[in-house]
Amino acid sequence: MITAAIAVTILVALTILVHYEVLRVASVLIPEERHVRPRFRVVLVVFACFAAHTIEVWLFALEALVGLLMIGWSASFTYLAMEKFWPMHGDRKWPLGSARRGRRQAGARKDGL
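Now predict its structure.
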């Protein structure tokens, strides 16, 4: 839980930093001369904001991909752990144990297929 909170805090800080820097650079680069139409300057500001938002979406998409990777990794690890430790249960009395033994006696394969 604390790791997720730290990751989100870093992600939000990066988002604010990207937005601030893009707008700062836009304010420096957009010409203020009278021969440039104000409407064109506004369009440049909109494109700068769009660029900032695109970079921020990539940051969040990267975080989502990392989260998806962690889910897959956890699922794979859980499968391997189950495969390793399941036989250690021995010959337990399962709720459907008699049905399982009946299939094996009827000539079913050992892996249950």
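The CA atoms of residues 61 and 67 lie 10 Å apart.
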